[in-house]
Each structure stands twice: as structure tokens, then as C-alpha cells.
Design a protein that fits this description.
four-stranded parallel β-sheet; about 425 residues; 2 domains; Rossmann fold; alpha/beta; 13 strands; about 35% helix
Length: about 425
Amino acid sequence: MHSILQCMDCGQHYPVDRMMYTCEHCGGLLDVQHDMDWLRKTVSREFFDKRLGSLDAPYNSGVWRYKEMVYPDVPDELIVSRPEGNTPLYSQPSLTAWAGVGKLYLKHEGENPTGSFKDRGMTGGVTHARALGIKRVACASTGNTSASLAAYAAFGGLNGIVFFQNKQIALGKLAQAIAYGAIGIQINADFDRNIQLVREVGEKFGIYILNSINPFRLEGQKSIMFEAMQQLRWKAPDWIVCPGGNLGNSSAFGKALYEMHALGLIDKLPSIAIIQAEGANPLYRSYESHFEHFEPVHAETVATAIKIGNPVNFKKAVRALRWTEGTVEQVDDQEIMDAKALIDRTGIGCEPASACSLAGVQKLVKQGVIKPHETVVGILTGHVLKDPEATIDYHNGKLEGIVANYPNRLYQSEPTIESLSRILEQAQSPVQ
């Protein structure tokens, strides 16, 4: 076997053919650790470049193209892939200028099969469930995880179970989970309580948990960095900027960059900047104390995908920040929705949480943390249709406490040429 599970705190090893998420000795989070000596003899830039454009499974997936660095020993016939990944790296001059950097790329994970980055992790997690012979998988979710779990469970012939909170779930995400056939349960609790419940239920009924505490989820999400570096011809940028909720992505990114650098796939480690919503900012608050203290918060933000007050991957995210000499910042809901409006009007579009990346870049440039000449890759985590209510309410001025600084007004017309003419004479497109 080329992989083991290893506790990131005490270093205890476990085989990968066990259903476990934390260390039995100290309770620490588990990593999937691959045999680096074997990888040095096996992978290279050219090795992965030869797979680009493959029409054959599993290498037509933007996750399984990097199988040796994700889950090398799994038989191809057990892989559950739609396929996912192969997401674009956008560069828009108007957004680059607004952010104030030399080069800005936005990697849009919202263009995955179910509309978010979660598909990359879910192909890894559901594949591992099949390898273990497990038939039922479950998650607690603010929305995107549920959509992805429901789709991949159905596609892989497994039974999916989703725990939702009973309010502030974006309808686009809820609809996906229901459409894909998962058992959906709305619970009178927030996400953080639902995480506790799903773990207790999983232990009691032998159900495999697919939240980001699952180490194979994070192995799949590493591929976002693998693919971004390959798209940049293996020339690492100065910064990777991403939203921070449960901190699975930032944890996976740190691990991916560390491994790529150790294997010589990239020549330097980019710094990671994790951007949290001001109303859901426990990592930011801990960062302000140099990580000497950590306290969960009651999360409230328009960016529902990151409305998490007690992130399970806190320690892994801190490790990623230390590996990459990274930083943490917060942005308020006004900054999030304004940045989203700018991303949307370029024709790219994203869900609110995604816009933390762009808002965070501009803020860090103004603070002098990111330099104006530097190259930045920002991660857009979800599709614009994930939360259409927030988009419409922003442009109609109906989001409480938020001003539509970049509105696109919806006009009303009588069914006459005269009425339409008056509107068209005064209307101006907001497109830059």
C-alpha cells in the first residue's frame, strides 16, 4: 500500500481500509499520507501533462488525473466520478484593476457538476466508501455539501442522508439534494450542532460521514491546487486566496502545495490567505491572538456556504498557514455582496461566499500585505445559481443592512412600444 492514515498531532498510523476520522489515541485529526519516496520515482510535471485531454476514465477527471497523489491504490472500477474538475482559470482586466494586483486569476470551482468545489472532495470520499463496502453516507450541510453528496451517492449506487438546519438554506442547494434522492432531514439547530449529530448518528448506525473531517474528502480537494498549478504551467503564484468556512479547502490547499513543493512540481510555496465573513470569523479572531486562543462563534452572514462558527479543520488550516506563511482576513457582508456583483457582471458569476476571495484580495492589497506587483489566484467556490435569492435581493435593495452599490435594476413595462421606448432611452447596462 502506498498510503496510510496518520494523526497530525501524535503521528499514530492507521491503515486506510478503516472507517475513521480522528485518532483513537489522542483525538487528533487524521491525514492521508502517501509514500513520498514512491511518488518521487513516479510523478513529475511531464507525467501529469501527458494525461491532459484524456478521454478515458478515470484520467478525464480533474481529480483522478492526479490519482497517485489522491488515492493511488484504489481500483479504477471503484472510482465514482462524473467527471469533476477541469474548471477554468479566469482573468478579467476589470477585476484585476479593482483588486489592485499585477495578475489576478479566478479559479471557478462553481463549474463542477453540482456547482461547487465539493464535488472534488466528494468523488474521493464516496470512492473510499465504496472501497470500504459501505452503503450509506451522510453529512451535515449548509447546502453545497448536501448537493454534492446526494449526487455522488446516487451516481455510485449508495444511499445518501443529509442533515440541514431548518432555516437560511439557499433553495438552489436544497433543491439539488432533494432532486438527487437523498434522505433530507431539517433539524432545529445550526450547522455546528448538526455536525455533532451526524457524527453521533454515523457511529451508532455505521454510516460513513462525508463532511470535511473525512480525510479522503480533503485529498480530493487538493486537486484544485494541482490543477491550478498545471494550468499556470507549474509556475506558482505569490498568493492563493480562498473563503474560509469549515476550513477544509484551505487545509487541503496547504497540504497540496506542501506536497507539490516537496516533490519538485513547483519551485516555491505560495502564501495562503483565508478570508472569513465578519459574522463567521473564529479563525480570524484566533489569528489576531497568534492562534493562542480559539473560541467558536455564533455564525451570521449572508454568505451561507461559510456560515460556520466552529470549523472542524481549524488545526489543519493553521498548519497550512504556517507552512505557507499565510494570513487571515475578514470581510463584512457589504464587501462580500459588492464583490459578488462585480464578479457577476463580468459574466463569470458566483455564490456570495465565493466573493470573499475578491473582496479579500482588495483589502489585503490596501493593507500592504499583498503587493501590487504580485500574482494572485483566487478561488470561487460556488455557482451563481446556488443562491439566487441573495442575488435578486441585493439588486432590488432588499438585503437588510446592505446597500446595492453596483445594482442592476429590474424594470417594469406595460406591453406597449411607448413604455418600452421610455425604459430603453433611460436604461444603462451595468456591464463595464
